[in-house]
Amino acid sequence: MSSEKASNVGFFERRFKLKEHKTDVKTEIMAGITTFMTMAYILAVNPGILSDSGMDYGGVFTATALSAFIACVMMAFLANYPFALAPGMGLNAFFTYTVVFGMGHSWQFALTAVFLEGIIFIILSFFQVREAIFNSIPMNLKKAVSVGIGLFIALIGLINAGIVDTGKMFMENGVNVLNEGGLIITLGNLKSPSALLALIGLVITGILLAKNIKGALFFGIIITTLIGIPMGVSYMPNGEFLGIFSLPPSLKDVAFQFEWGRILSFDMVIVVFTFLFVDVFDTVGTLIGVSSKAGMLDEEGKLPRVRQALLADAIGTTFGACLGTSTVTTFVESASGVSDGGRTGLTALSTGVMFGLALILSPLFGMIPGAATAPALILVGLFMMSPIKEIDLDDFTEAIPAFLTIVMMPFAYSIAEGIVFGMVSYVVLKVLAGKQKDVSPIMYVLAFLFVLKTIFM
């Protein structure tokens, strides 16, 4: 090993404590790349959704990649955890279709709300409010969150590949038509190239896992993408190598575009609160689920350095709003990197670097179809199921809330709503069963707030 290479390895070892976490540089970097590949879709989807509100597509693309890079670096160096961050799904849809279309506000108004949310989150992180919420959730519910996220992330993979259909769209004369009432999940068209490729990838990745190949998810994505080229699902950009490079679009039309004139309006309060609510429980849920699977929780169910992890999330949201994108949050797809062996901030740093490279290599990353990353997400769903063995299913005041947490995440298509059902049912059942001592004061407060939110929002 050259002295320069040894020096680099030594730096990573000292900074991220690799041996202490029983990992190495190669494993961490590959885990980071795997995480990136399973969440790279956000580079196309987020600009697409936010551009519907009137924002510049290219500017939002650059803001998405840069905010993800900044947030991942913050997670790496502040918390030393393998959690990756980027502008979150659901929150971007709320930004465009509720705040802008539904409420009639400008996208600048919505962006201002995201910025205010980020500032509030930074303040809450210093006062350890989100840390207190994290620690107040009972251990059985924390394990249930991991299982629920597993089902949720597997559902995302199945939908992305077209293996299952949400029923929202149907084909009419060769054109996709929106079916407003169609929300039932059904079997997709397994003869479609996308579904076939995903099924092939599922078999390939499964074999790699069965043979204990290190980086099985990563190699599964690469092999599946290559197989997808002759199938017409994935393709080389412009058909030539030079076509993979591009200069990042300018941020000038989206960065720092705030609307300060209405920050004290009632609508602003409602919008900021909604962003806060969804982001808090999406992030807390993801941290619980992924850290539980990785064995990072201590005996009391607490996550060391959770305050730093939540602070990285808050900083990402604030910087993201300044650059011109919706709320940045910890991604559930981080579980794919953890499943590939990622245990430290070097995984998050590697993911961040990939987002940085995406700014100039976007055509190359664009060749990886959802069908190629779907097998990784589906199998991560399997990995996330293991904590179900440790849930107390004999005590129904524990089992029912855990069950509702698990099933409502995929059925409501929301990590936050799964947590709401679990926590409210936990408090109600414990109180009615005379087991009030099992409920922490914070749980009472949160359950009450959840009920109020459901009634009035």
Explain what this protein looks like in three dimensions.
The protein has 18 helices and 6 strands. The strands form 3 sheets. The protein has a two-stranded antiparallel ribbon. Strands 2-5 form a two-stranded antiparallel ribbon. The protein has a two-stranded antiparallel sheet with strand order 3-4. It is mainly α. It has helices spanning about 5-15, 25-40, 40-50, 55-80, 90-100, 105-125, 130-135, 140-160, 195-210, 215-230, 265-295, 305-325, 335-340, 345-365, 370-385, 395-410, 415-430, 440-455, and strands at about 85, 165, 170, 175-180, 185, 330. The chain has one domain (about 15-170, about 185-235, about 255-455).
Layout of helices and strands, plus pairs?
Elements: H1 3-16, H2 25-39, H3 42-51, H4 57-79, E1 85-87, H5 91-102, H6 107-126, H7 129-136, H8 139-161, E2 164-165, E3 169-172, E4 175-178, E5 186-187, H9 193-210, H10 216-231, H11 266-293, H12 306-323, E6 328-330, H13 334-339, H14 345-365, H15 370-383, H16 396-412, H17 415-432, H18 441-456
Antiparallel strand pairs: 1-6, 2-5, 3-4
Main location: membrane
Organism: Tissierella praeacuta DSM 18095
Family: Belongs to the nucleobase:cation symporter-2 (NCS2) (TC 2.A.40) family. Azg-like subfamily.
Main sheet characteristics: 2 strands, antiparallel
| Total number of beta strands | 6
Distance between the ends: 61 Å
> What is the SS-derived class?
mainly alpha
Oligomer category: single chain
Q: Tell me the overall shape.
A: globular
Unreliable stretches, pLDDT < 50, 5 or more residues? none
Helix content: 55-70%
Radius of gyration: 22 Å
Strand order of the largest sheet: 1-6
Taken together, the total number of domains comes to 1
Q: Please count the helical segments.
A: 18
Strand content: under 5%
How would you spell out the order of helices and strands?
HHHHEHHHHEEEEHHHHEHHHHHH
Which whole number gives the mean pLDDT? 85
